[in-house]
Amino acid sequence: VPAADAPVFGAWPEGFLWGSATAAAQIEGAAHEGGKEDSIWDAYARVPGAVANGDTPEVAVDHYHRMPEDVAILKRLGLDSYRFSTSWARVKPGDRAVNEEGLDFYSRLVDELLAAGILPWLTLYHWDLPQALEEKGGWANRDTAYRFRDYAMAVHERLGDRVTHWTTFNEPLCSSLIGYVAGEHAPGRQDPHAGLAAVHHQHLAHGLATRALREAGAEQIGITLNLTNALPNDPNDLVDLEAARRIDALWNRMYLEPILLGAYPVDLLEDVADYGLAELIEPGDLDTIAAPIDFLGVNHYHDDNVSGHPLPAGAEQAAEPTARPKRSPFVGSEHVTMPSRGLPRTAMDWEVNPSGLRTLLVRLGGEYPNLPPLYVTENGAAYDDELSADGAVHDVERTEYIADHIAAVHDAIRDGADVRGYFVWSLLDNFEWAWGYDKRFGIVRVDYETQERTIKDSGLRYAGIVAAAKASGIR
Ligand code: GBH
């Protein structure tokens, strides 16, 4: 595959990990096979109007049945690592006994990856809680954190002899505030108290699982956060500066500080004082949450341009994926708006600004002296691409997006950021949550009728960048 003309932006650090990422509910399908029961996404997708076009994760891209073919694609692309998630509802359906048949699937996947020379990078929670646990209160129920630790241990017991890299949560912000407050993701609740309870209980679950995994001998343990640069729309406007502070507190520091410093930010606790976060913290919780981690995963797609003023009349609003009413996910800061900066946008309406990734990666090291090594665990773009008559997918914009962001990562490393790897989101077109199959993020196209896979130009270019980077010598 490698293209000789790919830019490499100079040499890369020794051992820099190149990969691609997916998530169980977005690709596996087989939603009710092999002993798997409903996750909250299976249940939520059945709510009329919840997901665009009434799409569901029932079949997705049939990865459950096509796993060897998908691993062969990773190998063909020359990637070092594959970031995937295990489905809790497949491993412990209804949170009952362990479903060995579910674990068998992940065991085969891990073996297939290792045989292909690809490092498995396993995420335990990418948003698909067993529906049976949601019916007991879901993440708003503190007990769910202890159930998560049990599930993590069940996966480790079966795969711990072969999997070295463990991620507890993917983007807990989304599965708490977007799922329990905005109601735009499963379970579709719109309750700020429940949302902040979900935040704290996911934190606790992360800490409990981190400790238990450590004791069980897991080598590398971390968490993936979706971090953003919260930029004041007008840096000279105090109202915009205050709004940006609030979003930085809620989006970034609400996660970074309990995990890295063992405390919630004081300003955040004030911003959300009406919603009971402080009251949920039990003695010892913050110590548990601050259990040392070996790496921090950073998912970054776009910056957030933040204002405390209403949007100008007639400003174009981002399209809504679904027919359901959506609440603001900005708990305690519901007045905040995100005006356009007039930059180019992807099909998600997200602004493209590669230098934001560089800024973010460099800034984190400056703000947190005990920051562990960073991995960009997701970065990528949705565009409406099509299969051409020549049988290829000429996704020029995605190709540029990926190359420009890789260049930004290289710049960040040159500026001193300790970044050890980069994973493109996503290996395959897939179930894009509330957007269903409308938005394509893959570097490999999937025909949803035939399930045929076609490596897009962006995938070929990425493979070329990886090959050239590896040949470029060591920084
Ligand atoms: C990631 O999250 C996911 O991990 C992945 O599963 C998904 O497919 C991929 O990105 C592409 O969407 O509340 O209106 O301010 C998405 C990143 C960042 C999207 C925060 C929603 C907040 C929107 N998310 N963003 S809003």
Describe the structure using short key phrases.
475 residues, binds ligand GBH, glycosidase, Glyco_hydro_1_AS
Class computed from helices, strands and strand pairing:
alpha/beta
The share of residues in extended strands comes to: 5-15%
Spatial sequence of strands, sheet with the most strands: 1-2-3-4-5-7-9-10
The helix tally amounts to 16
> Which outline best applies?
globular
Strand and helix order: EHHHEHHEHHEHHEEHHHHEEHEHEEEH
Largest sheet composition? 8 strands, parallel, barrel
The amount of helix comes to: 25-40%
Bound molecules: ligand GBH
Provide mean pLDDT, rounded.
Answer: 96
pLDDT < 50 runs, ≥5 residues = none
Question: Strands, helices and their partners?
Answer:
Blueprint: E1 17-21, H1 24-27, H2 40-45, H3 63-77, E2 81-85, H4 88-91, H5 100-115, E3 119-125, H6 131-134, H7 143-159, E4 165-170, H8 172-182, H9 192-215, E5 220-226, E6 230-232, H10 238-261, H11 266-271, H12 277-280, H13 285-289, E7 295-299, E8 304-306, H14 355-367, E9 374-378, H15 396-414, E10 419-425, E11 444-446, E12 453-455, H16 457-471
The structure holds ligand GBH.
